[in-house]
């Protein structure tokens, strides 16, 4: 479904004027284009529907050919065809198209027209078709629907009320109506309808709908009872096991939750919902990053899961290095930057990264490409544009950060080193203004993190052990200064996405952490310690050391640091879809 036919955005009144002019001239095709555009601007405006009716009358075939469906059809044309189908007595087909438009643009009031909310529509289409429409709406809508978009779904809820009035004992209709009511915040009504549905026709799905409604109403014990009855109806539906486990965990009953998820895995060790839930709950139990790494491996090896899950992102969100950067190490510690390490954005070209590019004399450092010289020049405007688009203080999880950084893959090594030596000013955006207002060093930290992630995409055809990307990142990590931890984070990210490099990266991280302790920097290394805790395959001794340095106990969240960063990062956390529910 396409957004539009051209780049114009005329008001609905102007589109209608053009449509009427074309209609008077007998140019029905152009009139149809303008009516479709007017529908997008004002989908419930009576004048738009009056003009559509005139167009249908003039066409001779009800106007359907003027709004034919193609592989890419303008959403306004889809909605126009829906209204014409309803006028032709094919309201069920029209409803299907309106739901498709709702899925495309959930905030638009596509269905807020009299024929959808008329009581007689429910009588004409029957309970099964009404239930199917409601299921389509639920599948297209987030759970819950944001408050700003709920009014657009009100006509479908009215359709549900009308259909239940006509068919008060239809279990499937009551259940789907409950699911819609729950999504739009009508929780009491959702419980009422779901309870009636179970009483009218006991079924697995009826109990699931009731369980979800009760859970939304805060009636957790009753919700779990309903979900257990759903398992009794169908012991092989492992998604319900995952729902029960998730509900138990959300209410502090983690051991019971793990018991349920282990039951599911015993039936099918590769069932995606159970695997995602199991790793999330195990991480909640002991805080060991290996559970998240195993989940990332599962996601990589099973790209065709039944639906998208948000468990990995949920576990990483707000956690140092797993889902967000940490502030730079305080000035005066072992890792404080040398004066020339990060010159001002408008400073002259200098030997800003000597440990990465070698001594000032020729030739360049051994093993680095000949094109890398001792002088690092400022990045070009195009390079600055790219980093400003990508640099962000938060990411869903390390593999997602790696994937996002592919936007820097085509940059030369000199471009990337130039960004590290000459970080640009923050962008003139909400993010840039907040970062520069809170602490300008955080913006530089963002540039460093994403530039180092970009280095991971440099010459990926080279085997890891002798690759340019590894050699440069290791030199940057060993150089000290503010760029050391971003470079080390890039290496850790490489270990997340490539199991073959995990032993190497774990050894590098262990050596860096041990050296920091040996240098007497333990009081100033919480960021490095958290970076170690995010590293795959780290040995138990180093994990224990990192936990001590980070000031956390095994299995416990680092709440002080999370609180410290929450205020800054909350506005920028990406919204991630969770697993769909019935």
UniProtKB/TrEMBL annotation:
Positions of region (Disordered): 328-366
Pfam families associated with the record: TPR_19
Low complexity bias: start-end ranges: 337-349
Stated name of the protein: Tetratricopeptide repeat-containing protein
Alphabetized SMART domains for the sequence: TPR
Organism: Micromonospora endophytica
Gene3D superfamilies hit by this protein: Tetratricopeptide repeat domain (1.25.40.10)
């Amino acid at each position: 479904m396409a957004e539009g036919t051209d780049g114009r955005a005329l008001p609905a009144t102007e589109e209608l004027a053009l449509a009427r002019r074309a209609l008077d001239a007998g140019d029905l095709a152009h009139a149809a284009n303008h009516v479709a555009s007017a529908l997008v601007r004002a989908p419930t405006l009576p004048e738009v529907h009056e003009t559509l009716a005139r167009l249908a009358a003039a066409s001779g075939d009800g106007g359907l050919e003027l709004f034919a469906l193609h592989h890419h059809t303008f959403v306004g044309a889809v909605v126009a065809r829906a209204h014409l189908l309803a006028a032709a007595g094919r309201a069920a087909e029209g409803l299907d198209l309106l739901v498709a438009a709702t899925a495309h643009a959930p905030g638009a009031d596509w269905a807020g027209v009299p024929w959808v909310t008329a009581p007689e529509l429910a009588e004409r289409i029957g309970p099964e078709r009404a239930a199917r429409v409601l299921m389509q709406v639920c599948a297209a809508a987030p759970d819950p629907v944001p408050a700003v978009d709920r009014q657009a779904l009100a006509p479908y809820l009215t359709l549900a009320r009308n259909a239940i009035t006509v068919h008060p004992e239809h279990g499937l209709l009551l259940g789907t109506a409950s699911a819609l009511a729950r999504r739009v915040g009508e929780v009491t009504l959702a419980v009422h309808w779901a309870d009636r549905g179970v009483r009218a026709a006991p079924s697995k799905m009826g109990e699931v709908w009731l369980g979800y409604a009760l859970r939304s109403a805060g009636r957790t014990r009753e919700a779990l009872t309903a979900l257990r009855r759903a398992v009794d109806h169908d012991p092989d539906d492992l998604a319900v096991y995952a729902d029960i486990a998730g509900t138990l965990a959300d209410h502090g009953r983690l051991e019971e939750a793990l018991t349920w998820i282990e039951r599911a895995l015993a039936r099918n060790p590769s069932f995606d919902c159970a695997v995602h839930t199991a790793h999330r709950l195990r991480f909640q139990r002991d805080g060991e990053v290996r559970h998240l790494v195993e989940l990332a491996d599962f996601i990589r090896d099973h790209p065709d899961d039944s639906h998208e899950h948000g468990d990995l992102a949920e576990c990483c969100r707000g956690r140092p290095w797993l889902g967000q950067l940490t502030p730079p190490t305080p000035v005066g510690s072992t890792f404080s930057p040398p004066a020339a390490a990060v010159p001002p954005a408008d400073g002259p070209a200098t030997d800003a990264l000597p440990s990465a590019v070698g001594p000032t004399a020729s030739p360049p450092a051994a093993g680095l490409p000949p094109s890398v010289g001792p002088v690092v020049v400022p990045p070009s405007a195009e390079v600055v544009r790219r980093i400003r688009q990508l640099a962000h203080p938060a990411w869903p999880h390390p593999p997602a950060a790696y994937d996002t950084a592919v936007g820097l893959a085509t940059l030369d090594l000199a471009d990337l080193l130039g960004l590290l030596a000459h970080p640009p000013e923050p962008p003139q955006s909400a993010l840039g203004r907040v970062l520069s207002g809170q602490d300008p060093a955080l913006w530089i930290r963002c540039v460093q993190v994403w530039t180092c992630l970009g280095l991971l995409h440099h010459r990926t055809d080279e085997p890891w052990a002798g690759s340019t990307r590894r050699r440069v990142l290791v030199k940057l990590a060993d150089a000290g200064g503010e760029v050391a931890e971003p470079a080390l984070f890039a290496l850790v990210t490489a270990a997340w996405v490539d199991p073959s490099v995990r032993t190497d990266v774990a050894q590098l991280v262990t050596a860096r952490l041990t050296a920091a302790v040996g240098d007497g920097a333990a009081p100033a290394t919480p960021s490095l310690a958290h970076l170690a805790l995010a590293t795959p395959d780290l040995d138990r001794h180093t994990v224990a050391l990192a936990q001590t340095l980070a000031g956390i106990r095994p299995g416990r969240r680092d709440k002080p640091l999370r609180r410290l960063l929450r205020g800054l990062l909350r506005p920028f956390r990406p919204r991630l879809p969770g697993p769909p529910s019935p």
